[in-house]
Amino acid sequence: MRGGERAPAADAWICEELTAYIVEADRRIAKFAQTNPVTRRLMQVPGVGPICAASFYSIIENPHRFARSTDVGAYLGMVPKLRQSGTSLHHARITRTGNAMTRSHLFLAASVMLTRSVEQCAIRDWGAALRARVGYRKARLAVARKIATAMLSIWKTAATLCPTQSVSTPLRERRIWSPMQTVEMRL
Fold first, then answer.
1. How far is CA 176 from CA 3, 80, 172, in A?
2. Which of 24, 99, 145, 162 is spaced 20 to 30 A from 6 at the CA atom?
3. Residues 32, 33, 37, CA angle at the centre, nearest 5°?
4. Based on the number of CB atoms within 10 Å of its own CB, is 114 exposed (0-12), middle (13-18) or buried (19 or more)?
């Protein structure tokens, strides 16, 4: 062996130790998500698992600091960057401010919802229609932003998700949210 190279046995030992550490960390996160009432409610959203729920819970901390649930998309950097010059307005890529790990977890949840979820869900149906119009990447971003908004609404109102609520329900026909009622969202 040349200087700086490791033996194959050392590499195998490192891989085994890392795998054991990751399995234990996943187990602890799943246990936390199942025992915490907020994360347990957040996992009702299709595509959201224990890691995504725990990540969202840890980065938001206090849901009442957001005046509107839709503000969470900007906080996590999932809104387009605006470039203005005179009378022209250009929408660039997303701002990517906020926590990158939580944003990636939400993107993964959106990918699962768009591609693998078989549950009937208004967000998934809306995302599938959007995907046909604008493409997968933009639809995934929009669905991730909707998931974040839905998760914050669920957390703030201490309610459960009604996944089959129509996306075309006007605001005036929507139920007023109160704790322990079903959240019916306009998507």
1. 69, 30, 9
2. 24
3. 105
4. buried
**Tokens 């701002």 — which residue?**
95
Query: With contact defined as beta carbons under 8 Å apart, do 34 and 53 qualify?
Result: no
What tens digit of pLDDT does each residue of 29-86 get?
Answer: 999 999 999 999 999 898 999 999 999 999 999 999 999 998 999 999 998 887 888 8
Query: How far are the Cα atoms of 65, 99, 142, 175 from residue 49, in angstroms, in the given order?
Result: 24, 18, 19, 27
The span from the CA of 96 to the CA of 103, in Å, is: 8
Distance CA(46)–CA(152), nearest Å, equals 15
CB under 8 Å, gap of 24 or more: what pairs does 97-100 form?
98/59, 99/55, 99/59
> What is the rounded (10 degree) CA torsion for 138, 141, 145, 151?
130
Residue 175: what pLDDT?
43
Counting DSSP H helices and E strands in the chain, the numbers are 7, 4
Helix (H, G, I), strand (E, B) or coil at 4: coil
Per-residue buried b or exposed e for 144-181, using 16+ beta carbons within 10 Å of the residue's own CB? bbbbbbbbbbbbbbebebebebeeeeeeeeeeebeeee
Cβ-in-10-Å burial (0-12, 13-18, 19+) of 85 comes to exposed
Q: Is the pLDDT higher at 6 or at 149?
A: 149
